Automatic annotation (TrEMBL):
It comes from Oryza nivara. Belongs to the FPP/GGPP synthase family. NCBIfam families: FPPsyn. InterPro entries: Isoprenoid_synthase_dom_sf, Polyprenyl_synt, Polyprenyl_synt_CS, Prenyl_diphosphate_synthase. It comes from the Eukaryota. One of its GO terms (molecular function) is prenyltransferase activity. The keyword Magnesium applies. This is Geranylgeranyl pyrophosphate synthase.
């Protein structure tokens, strides 16, 4: 199917909110292109109809709401209110402290300094917070998921260090300061990423045991993170992304790239948190579907921001996707349709939390909204 035909179909479906038949009886257009690769239960849920309010669509259209970009977020949950900014700040601080303790010091000094430079550079800590919140969602103690939270941030940071290198995206700016290879040189940056990847799995294996997590849960978490960083996740997405530069890319291929390059690691963070927290299999799978939608949502918003924001606003070089002639959701669908798609993904993610305890689900519900409305 040509990209133009796909885009037209998606536009019609977004307007109708239901399944439609194309003029070609052998092709069925779904409500959102992501449904091709989302888990089956997510597809079924969306076919039943995901209600996306006008307010949500308008907020996503602007990619900003006052509540989520300054001050407290107090949305009624179970008759009360939930202060998401306070929750996010406290969890991020706890993760930062744990990462500081986990990062190596000493010899070889330059390698350790390079690792610490990127891991402790800040960032939203979305993936670690996902792990902690998913652990609490299923009734676990967030402390048990701290090793997983740190490990997933190490893996994520590894991917950023490698992604910025000249052989990849060749980006000199990351989180508002020089990229690792600019600050430390290419070979040190490469090895810092490799060392972080190895440290992540060592940290889970040792740390979960120290927190009393049963060995079988620890092993499942290690397997989940390994799958998400290799050929079942980040590495596969990166290869597909680089090979597609300058070439015509279908929505299905774009979805493959982003499911693997971005969504899979967010999914693994949440799933691993739920696993070490003792979640039942059905609960873990619901968390997986939630996080898959959130992961794609993160990438759609990222694509829109890259096209509509400045480097100063983003803390990294804006417009790199356009310069590299990469396929993005705004490029294939247009900015407005990409924002509509983000609204659909937000609704699908929140729907997966229905049935969980409302107070325990509040952090994940607000985290999805935070990702949808973020400005950098």
């Amino acid at each position: 199917m040509h990209v133009l035909a796909q885009s037209t179909a998606v536009a019609k479906v977004a307007a109708s909110g239901c399944l439609r038949r194309s003029p070609n009886p052998s092709v069925t257009f779904q409500r959102s292109p992501s449904l091709l690769l989302l888990p089956a239960a997510c597809r079924r849920r969306c076919r039943r109809g995901c209600s996306v309010s006008v307010d949500v669509r308008c907020a996503l259209g602007a990619m900003v709401t006052p509540e989520l970009n300054g001050g407290d977020v107090g949305v009624g949950v179970g008759g009360g209110s939930f202060d998401f900014q306070r929750y996010l700040s406290a969890r991020a601080d706890a993760v930062n402290d744990a990462l500081d303790r986990a990062m190596p010091r000493g010899f070889p000094e330059r390698l350790c300094e390079s690792m610490r430079y990127s891991v402790l550079a800040g960032g939203k800590r979305v993936r670690p917070v996902l792990a902690l919140a998913a652990c609490e969602l299923v009734g676990g103690d967030a402390a048990a998921a701290t090793p997983v939270a740190c490990a997933v941030e190490m893996i994520h940071t590894m991917s950023l260090i490698h992604d910025d290198m000249p052989c990849m995206d060749d980006d000199a700016l990351r989180r508002g300061r020089p990229s690792n290879h600019v600050a430390f040189g290419e070979f040190t940056a490469l090895l810092a990423g490799d060392a972080l990847h190895a440290l992540a799995f060592e940290h889970v294996a040792r740390g979960c045991g120290d927190h009393g997590v049963p060995a079988d849960r620890t092993l499942r978490a290690v397997a989940e993170l390994g799958s998400a960083s290799g050929t079942g996740g980040v590495a596969a997405g990166q290869v597909a992304d680089k090979e597609s530069e300058g070439l015509p890319v279908s929505l299905a291929m774009l979805e493959y790239i982003h499911v693997h390059k971005t969504a899979r690691l967010l999914e693994a963070a949440a799933v691993s948190g739920a696993i070490v927290g003792g979640g039942a299999d059905a609960e873990v799978e619901r968390v997986r579907r939630y996080a898959r939608c959130v992961g794609l949502l993160f990438q759609v918003v990222d694509d829109v921001l890259d096209m509509t924001s400045t480097s100063e606003q983003l803390g990294k070089t804006a417009g790199k996707d356009v310069e590299a002639d990469k396929a993005t959701y705004p490029k294939l669908l247009g900015v407005d349709k990409a924002r509509e798609y983000a609204a659909d993904l937000l609704a699908m993610a929140e729907a997966e939390l229905d049935g969980f305890d409302a107070e325990r689900a509040a952090p994940l519900r607000h985290l999805a909204r935070f990702i949808a409305y973020r400005q950098h």
